[in-house]
Design a protein that fits this description.
Length: 220
């Protein structure tokens, strides 16, 4: 028996679209799915007409404050980074929230951190910033500590960028900058942007596949 891939809808904290679009979705209540949205009239067209949903592999681009599993029926078309459908409803909210978004951003930064530390073995600012952000997510660090970690991570990022500007190690430069910047953004006040940016800082296929597996862990 073939299992259909899950589809997702990303919404803002108040349940409204956060990546374009208008209107409000009918939200699930407990174990009860949200009501079916009114059928879309006219020709379906990506970014213009239709309900837009994500596959798992699309979520790194569209991630936001709230992520719901969605169901469709009727006509649909597949675009490069989304699915456009005529009818849809929200089944349930996933485990994605401010805490898990921050933890995911920490994971992404930490995963590429060894490249940064290979070039700068004595510089622990990025690692310490990630550790502090993870503690904050788990209620074990203060906002003041988080702000200090953010500043330290930015200093590490700029130091790495300045040093790499005169170096032929372009790949090392990019990875080092990505690790430090992701850690800094994770320590900032917007975990949603941090999670998205940390993921997209590393664009190679293998890294994105790892990120998708890790993201799915937090959506359960």
């Amino acid at each position: 028996m073939t299992t259909k891939p899950k589809l997702y809808k990303v919404l803002s904290a108040d349940g409204k679209p956060c990546n374009g679009g208008t209107g409000e979705w009918f939200l699930p209540h407990g174990k009860r799915p949200g009501k079916w949205m009114p059928p879309i009239k006219g020709e379906l067209c990506p970014c213009e007409n239709g309900y837009h949903l994500c596959r798992l592999e699309d979520l790194l681009q569209w991630i936001g404050p709230r992520v719901f599993e969605a169901q469709t029926r009727g006509e649909k078309i597949t675009a490069t980074d989304k699915i456009v459908v005529r009818e849809a409803r929200l089944l349930k909210e996933t485990g994605w929230n401010e805490r898990t978004a921050r933890l995911f951003a920490c994971d992404c930064a930490e995963h590429v951190l060894p490249i940064f530390e290979k070039k700068y073995p004595q510089d622990k600012r990025a690692r310490e910033a990630i550790a502090t952000a993870r503690k904050f997510a788990n209620g074990k660090a203060t906002k003041a500590a988080l702000a200090a970690a953010r500043d330290a991570a930015w200093d590490a990022a700029w130091d790495a960028a300045r040093d790499a500007a005169s170096s032929p190690w372009a790949a090392a430069r990019d990875a080092a900058w990505a690790a430090a910047r992701a850690a800094a953004r994770d320590a900032a006040s917007s975990p949603w942007a941090a999670a998205r940016d940390a993921a997209w800082d590393a664009t190679r296929d293998a890294e994105q596949k790892w990120q998708l597996r890790r993201l799915f862990h937090y959506l359960k």
